[in-house]
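Project standup — Tuesday

K.O.: blocked on the structure for the chain from last sprint. Re-posting the sequence here as requested.
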Amino acid sequence: MSSRRGGLAWRVEVLEVRALLATATFQTPPLAGLAGGRNVAAAFERMVGSLQAQIAIQAPRDASPETVARVVDEVVGQYEAASRSAFASSPRLVDLLVRQGDATRQAVDALKLSHDAGLIGLATFQEQAFLEVQELTLSRDVWPVGTPLQTYYVLARETSDDLASIATTVQASTALSDASAAALLATEAEAFQSEVLIAASRQPMVARPVVAATSDLIAQVAAAIGRPDFAATVAQATAGFADALVNPGGVFGPGGSIGRRYPQLPVVPDPLSIQDAATFDKLQYRQVETTAPILLHRNFSSASNRYGRFMSTETFASPTEAVRRLALDQSWFNPNPAWYVEDVSIPTGQTIYVGRVAAIYQGIFRREPAPSLYPGGAPQYIVANTRAPGIVWENFRTTGT
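H.V.: unblocked you, prediction finished:
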């Protein structure tokens, strides 16, 4: 178990069971041309790209949670050992590589704990575990250089929402033991911390409050295991995490020391989830009730995503243009290559959210200086209920015709 995992002693038992199973392996990629680690960007990209590829080979998308967690733990452990050995003379590079491994391992562990506790089903685990690995290594939210400050707010909000959901479950259910709940909360928070620290190694103003909020949460919950007030302490600890990072006055929140530097989420009657809001450029969108019919267009790849909520007023000359302008990330579990398009007539009285598509920047080590693969920028409409009476889907065709 990596020394960076920290946390609670009883958590070791969850992971050591995997050692009883067949061993997964990490093969160190060729390291020629990396100047012994002095070329930090190239070395990071080669090692992390190899990590992702080898996890994908040894833990297929339809593998069991036990197999996925075991493979990730073993491959990451060997990857971290190889990183320390190969780049011992470059401690900054080793630190970044190890944090990358820890974030990947902890994200998958958190999902497995959620599955084992009955909070998510098998299909959800398989999809989300695959996405976690892909997003941490191929389609990154954070980079060791150049991460926009607003990205930390999005990550902190997502984590805070997840922790609050766990706290609600703890209060409502007796099936989840104190130890299991504490392990789930700790792993979720540590995964967030490790991901942030990949990018914040040179941004102490970001790193310090994240480490403090995570440490406080874990310490409070660990101290309450077995006490009658465990559920109340969990609720208090998760609320404190939100207050420290994302609520008004929190570091990344409205009026916070970092949050005051960028636009916050708009005030609307029925706010979007942070995941939906993050698909809009700079998190900015408007909530609108249609006062007249409008015509939108939905690009999709198959019947399974035909009736999705994301639409645009633009049509595109080809699927490639649609993918770029709509920032349709092709590394996702079920990518949308936008082969087809359909017109969608939205009647009066429908709730829609309007803005511009946020870019998705590609590249393992740093955010590209200009949007490269998925620049976004097209008008984006999220329709609250795509199957509402009066919505008409018609003129099915291939994109560009």
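K.O.: great, moving the ticket to review. The longest helix spans residues 91-116. Residues 1-140 form one domain.
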